[in-house]
UniProtKB/TrEMBL annotation:
Pfam families: DUF5131 (PF07505). This is DUF5131 family protein. It comes from Pseudosulfitobacter pseudonitzschiae. The lineage of its organism: Bacteria, Pseudomonadati, Pseudomonadota, Alphaproteobacteria, Rhodobacterales. It comes from the Bacteria.
Length: 283
């Protein structure tokens, strides 16, 4: 098996243990993985009740990446980043539970890799790891990202992500804001009656025009990825939406990665010079 690096700019390798999913939010409307499934299988692994397709070589691929991790580290000065999963959701509750147990055990064993788990189902995370990873003991080589495409999703899901980070000891968490469908403020999210800057950890109670009782004790988001939608019928992303995210991240010292402007055809418009920021979290 030949292992090649992925074309996804913010990772080194992708591993899929199964393929297939179901749309759960506005960011899913024009899913590239669903389009791929339609192209190759007629769309038989997508939607309510559709069976997922197990990727027979997924575990073997991960084992080979981990075996080559020391050579990768010698060449690049860091451990390989591995994204799970580009063609599914690792926390999809329609997946055979034994598939997930096997996959998560392999992730835990591949300790020379640095995993980027991405989900649109943050509410499923804790119950699905509780009995696999030693009753919630989160592996320290695994990070968790969630998809956030608009302010409503930010307000709803980021508090859940930060709560998991604190209680499960997740080493880093991030946001995949692609496709970005509107402006999003991360520096003032309402959580349990308080305002939270989820990039700095500042928490305060608003009173009149002044922020009263500022303290810095909240969990923080460690990484933000932003990008426009691609493919047929792609919804436009205003560059200023991405600039506002970049500015919030720069003010907080949070790594920010601008992936693409997006569009309906390739090549996509070039990223403006002032937005061409591609930073990774440490580790």
């Amino acid at each position: 098996m030949t292992i090649t690096e992925t074309k996804i700019e913010w990772t080194d390798f992708t591993v899929n243990f199964w393929e297939g999913c179901q749309k759960v939010g506005p960011g899913c409307d024009h899913c590239y993985a669903e389009a791929r499934d339609v192209r190759f299988t007629g769309g038989t692994h997508w939607g309510p009740g559709a069976p997922r397709r197990k990727v027979i070589g997924g575990i073997a691929k991960l084992r080979k990446i981990n075996r080559g991790a020391e050579a990768f580290h010698a060449a690049h000065g860091r451990w390989p980043r591995v994204f799970c999963s580009s063609l599914s959701d690792v926390f999809d509750n329609a997946v055979d539970e034994q598939w997930r147990v096997q996959a998560f055990n392999e992730i835990e064993l591949a300790s020379d890799c640095r995993f980027q788990l991405l989900t649109k189902r943050v509410g499923n995370v804790e119950k699905m790891v509780r009995d696999i990873w030693d009753h919630g003991r989160w592996p320290q080589h695994v990070g968790l990202m969630i998809t956030v495409v608009n302010q409503a999703e930010a307000d709803r899901d980021i508090p859940k992500l930060l709560d998991l980070k604190t209680r499960l000891g997740i080493p880093w968490v991030g946001l995949s804001m692609e496709p970005l469908l509107g402006p999003v403020r991360l520096d003032s999210l309402p959580i349990k009656g308080m305002n939270h800057d989820v990039l700095t950890g500042q928490v305060w109670q608003c009173g009149g025009e002044d922020n009263l009782g500022v303290r810095t004790d909240g969990a923080i988001v460690d990484w933000v990825i932003a990008g426009g939608e691609s493919g047929r019928n792609a919804r436009p992303m205003h560059p200023d939406w991405a600039r506002r995210l970049r500015d919030q991240c720069e003010a907080a010292g949070t790594p920010f990665f601008m992936k693409q402007m997006g569009g309906t055809r390739k090549p996509f418009p070039e990223i403006p010079d002032d937005l061409n920021v591609r930073r990774f979290p440490n580790g």
